[in-house]
């Protein structure tokens, strides 16, 4: 294998194994930042040794054993070396001299528990939402700071600072490397799910930049969600979130045109929807419901997505059921954004006038003042009522508020259509 092939193999191994490696080391040293440094040391060792020795049969175990060795080297320099040595790495020491590690034993049996601890630590509520997202992608996604920065269109130093501050905050707050239980677990789990869904949404509908979607972020969120579903299989909302992401991701290929322009839901070629992802999503929804989680916020949103997935054509969509599900979601997790979506469903089920009535009650909500979808939805409803001049003004206002260039172009096109006395339904 050439050196370039070896480096590509190391990159692939790191993406797959880094989260488990950091999780296992964090359990030993009880410090996320130190665990990542030790994992990076193991990666450097691989970069130095594998081009000559070849990629080991079990590369993840090799990295774990090497990381353990680095941890013990570090602890040797500390006052309480002997107790920590026995606790963390007795299997790697023989007669005071290092023996060749048993790489097959390098990965711990409870690695699933370690990953769960890492998830809960990286998404701890003591951190800001931005810090949780950055740290999660760094530790669990194995992404570099440059990759995270490019994904969110943020300067790389900003992401680096967020990650450093997040580690310091966790250390200063004395956050333990553990998976909480009981009520605390429920509270922390909501933070974890929020982070995963934020990552997915940024990939599904990019808030800024020149691209309508960032598929890599959707894929990363799906990967994290699937891992989480394996780690906590009895939590219905985890399966609800996975279902929601699977079904929404199934539309990805149909959401953009040949030049990357947005294609709205009712105009999409449904033959391009990924039936495998839809099947996975519906199965995850059934699992959430079987666990008694049908009324959970993510399960309700998944049920909404399932209504679209089950409709062979846009005309077959059960808008009455969608409106009812949004009403249930508004009771379970009330927010102006949910009400805005409910207004769209009401307009499709019972006519644009009914939807507009609800939208007009939302125009004074402070949280929606700069939310571009409020004037976008209002413009759509006005256009459907034939009030084209008012609709044009709303679409132009929405275009001025969005930071996504593709979406701005779409909204200005709709404003132009209204100026010509034309209109169409816009559902992202």
From TrEMBL:
It comes from Wenjunlia tyrosinilytica. Belongs to the sigma-70 factor family. ECF subfamily. One of its GO terms (molecular function) is DNA binding. Keywords: Sigma factor, Transcription, Transcription regulation. Residues 21-80 form the RNA polymerase sigma-70 region domain. One of its GO terms (biological process) is DNA-templated transcription initiation. Residues 120-170 form the RNA polymerase sigma factor 70 region 4 type domain. Pfam families: DUF6596, Sigma70_r2, Sigma70_r4_2. It comes from the Bacteria. Transmembrane segments: none annotated. This is RNA polymerase sigma factor. Gene3D superfamilies: 1.10.1740.10, Winged helix-like DNA-binding domain superfamily/Winged helix DNA-binding domain. Residues 188-288 form the DUF6596 domain. InterPro entries: DUF6596, RNA_pol_sigma-70_dom, RNA_pol_sigma70_r2, RNA_pol_sigma70_r4_t2, RNA_pol_sigma_r2, RNA_pol_sigma_r3/r4-like, WH-like_DNA-bd_sf.
């Amino acid at each position: 294998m050439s050196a370039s092939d070896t480096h590509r193999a190391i990159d692939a191994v790191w993406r797959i194994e880094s989260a488990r490696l950091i999780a296992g080391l964090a359990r030993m040293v009880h410090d996320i930042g130190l665990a990542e440094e030790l994992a990076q040391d193991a990666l450097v060792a691989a970069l130095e040794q594998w081009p000559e020795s070849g990629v080991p049969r079990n590369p993840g175990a090799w990295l774990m054993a090497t990381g353990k060795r680095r941890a013990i080297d570090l602890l040797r320099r500390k006052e309480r070396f002997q107790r920590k040595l026995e606790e963390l790495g007795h299997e790697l020491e023989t007669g005071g001299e290092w023996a060749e590690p048993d790489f097959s034993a390098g990965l711990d049996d409870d690695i699933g528990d370690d990953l769960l601890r890492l998830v809960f630590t990286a998404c701890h509520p003591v951190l800001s939402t931005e810090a949780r997202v950055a740290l999660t992608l760094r530790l669990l996604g194995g992404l570099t700071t440059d990759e995270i920065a490019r994904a969110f269109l943020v300067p790389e130093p900003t992401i680096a600072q967020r990650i450093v501050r997040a580690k310091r905050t966790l250390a200063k707050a004395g956050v333990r490397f553990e998976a909480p239980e009981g009520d605390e677990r429920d509270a922390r789990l909501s933070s974890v799910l929020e982070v995963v869904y934020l990552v997915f949404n940024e990939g599904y509908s990019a808030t800024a930049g020149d691209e309508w979607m960032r598929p890599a972020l959707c894929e990363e969120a799906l990967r994290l969600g699937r891992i989480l579903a394996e780690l906590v299989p009895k939590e219905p909302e985890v399966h609800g979130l996975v279902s929601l992401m699977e079904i929404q991701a199934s539309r990805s290929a149909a959401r953009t045109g040949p030049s990357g322009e947005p294609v709205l839901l009712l105009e999409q070629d449904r033959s391009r929807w990924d039936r495998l992802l839809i099947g996975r999503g519906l199965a995850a929804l059934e699992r959430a419901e079987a666990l008694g989680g049908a009324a959970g916020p993510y399960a309700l949103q998944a049920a909404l997505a399932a209504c679209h997935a089950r409709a062979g054509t846009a005309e077959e969509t059960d808008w009455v059921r969608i409106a009812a599900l949004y009403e249930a979601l508004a009771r379970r997790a009330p927010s102006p954004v949910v009400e805005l979506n409910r207004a769209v469903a009401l307009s499709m089920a019972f006519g644009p006038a009914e939807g507009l009535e609800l939208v007009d009650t939302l125009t004074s909500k402070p949280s929606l003042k700069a939310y571009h979808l409020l004037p976008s939805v209002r413009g759509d409803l006005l256009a459907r009522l034939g009030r084209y001049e008012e609709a044009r003004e709303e679409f132009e206002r929405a275009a001025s508020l969005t930071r996504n260039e593709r979406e701005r172009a779409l909204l200005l096109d709709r404003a132009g259509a209204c100026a010509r006395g034309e209109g169409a339904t816009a559902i992202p």
